[in-house]
Specification:
By secondary structure, the protein is α/β, with parallel strands linked by helices. The protein has two domains: 96 residues, Alpha-Beta Plaits, CATH 3.30.70; 189 residues, Rossmann fold (3-Layer(aba) Sandwich). 27% of the residues lie in helices and 30% in strands. Strands 8, 9, 10, 11, 12, 13, 14 and 15 form an eight-stranded mixed sheet that branches. The protein has a four-stranded antiparallel sheet with strand order 2-3-1-4, with helices on one face. A three-stranded mixed sheet has the order 5-6-7, with helices on one face. The longest helix has 13 residues. About 7% of the residues have low confidence. GO terms for molecular function: protein-lysine N-methyltransferase activity. Keywords: Cytoplasm, Methyltransferase, Ribonucleoprotein, Ribosomal protein, S-adenosyl-L-methionine, Transferase. Its EC number is 2.1.1.-. Belongs to the methyltransferase superfamily. PrmA family.
Length: 294
Amino acid sequence: MPWIQLTLTTKESYGRQLGDILMANKAQAVTYRDAKDAPIFEPGPGEVPLWELTQVTGLYPAETDMQAVIKNLSKVSFLAKPLRYKTDQLEDKDWEREWMDNFKPIDFGNGLWVVPSWHQPPVADAANILLDPGMAFGTGTHPTTSLCLQWLAEQDLTDKSTVDFGCGSGILGIAALKLGAVSCLGTDIDQQALKATHENAELNGVADKFSVYLPEEAPEHKADVVIANILAGPLRELAPNLLAYLKPGGMIAMSGILVRQAEAVMAAYEPLIQFEPVRESGDWCFLHGRKVNP
């Protein structure tokens, strides 16, 4: 099957957001490269690309209407106007096989593993999250997702209700359920993300405990744990929405935040949230705390 490769350059701080936008515009895979030409694939756990400028490349089937994709990208506020991009025709290649060869089981501690579905779990009785290739929005290797999974693995989630806000692939909600949570409500603005979450929940045998909704269709709900791995801007703007999901005394966990953005995000939740010390991984950070009882 032939492919089209679309490449754009942006500031490092926008790299992940641009990758998400490409995936939302039907890219089958996204890779990142230093604009000075030092290539990487998806970063490993705890690793962050620290480049000033990042090239973000999306891989599209050859039949994709690229003009429609370019039209959508031209509306992205942080990209240069007129839009600067490069497209390349690629040779037919088994991209899924290459992806499979590079995605290995990952241990997040305390018995939590993310395991490609074609691999035998290294620890059979662990909390193993199975993922298939081609699922968008997160495999656990990006630092923001890794920080969330490490935190979840440390918690006693037995019989806890959870919310996965901006659920993407559903990896965080599935992790919570595998670790003993009794239910998870997932929301996302992207129908493809809801589909991916449902399929991954079925693959992991937790679909009966994991309900997914567009935000405007989600029922009123109070949970013991709310977790959101999105971006700093939406986390600030949507603070009332996240807080509305959280029971008094409940725990909130947030990622997708650059270290320099942490104070502004925390300010949107204080004094209702009493925060624990900030955790960092390279330029990224993770915020967690507890809702104060009235």
